[in-house]
Design a protein that fits this description.
With 275 residues, this protein is mainly alpha-helical. It has 14 helices and four strands. The mean pLDDT is 87.
Amino acid sequence: MAFAEKLIAVRHAHHLTQEQLAAKLFVTRQAISRWERGEVTPGIDMMKLIAAVTGEPLSHLIEMPEHYCQSCGMLLTPDDCGTDAAGTANDHYCKWCYDHGEYTYETTMEAMIEDCAPRLAQNTGMSLDEAVSLMGAVLPQLERWRTVQENEERYGAEARARYGDEAIDAANEALLDMNPETWNDMKELERAILGQLSIAMDDGDPKSSEAQKLVAMHRRWIGLNWGSEPQDEAYLGLAHGYLADRRFIDYYDKPCGTGATAFLVQAIESSLTRA
């Protein structure tokens, strides 16, 4: 779908007239009309503003290729695909970012933008500033970077205040360096934990074998997120932090029932006491 069609659909979904959207964007109604007729396309910074005022993900507004690398964002052709651990083509990543089940080099999102933006500008004719702005908008939505970005936005300030920058930076690096196979295992474990939490709650005893199985699964999952299994004190502190944050309570209570977070914390406390 072309940008013009997307803009019309977004505007109608939010019940906005052209005049109302123009006022929110500080542009004229005529500018909105020209965008919707496809006569011109706004620059990346204006698209970011449209996304901000409508709540529409920027990735929905940008005309992205059907298949693109989930690390650098480049167009993927069959010849450019990376490979998984068995050497089979992987259509999520390009061969320059991913080879035989591993990222080809360690980097940060900022370094990736600095490295790739000049080539994007050269290949598309956009300015370097536009290329940097575009990549800064697109990369946080890609698989390799998305979780770290979401975690920083939701919990970054609190986590850094509690655990320090060094610990959080190390956890972020562990996630960024994680290959897709391990990532998929971690997401499967995350879903299994919620199922095991429901099973353990049915027993009703945070000291039961089912509850202790839950703790073992949960602690392993935290270790995958942090890059290493947490020490007892840090793990207990994390658990107690769950009860002080409505977001964590909702994460466990909504799928597993009221009191699920408190039960998990009790099971963790029981496990550490027994140890």
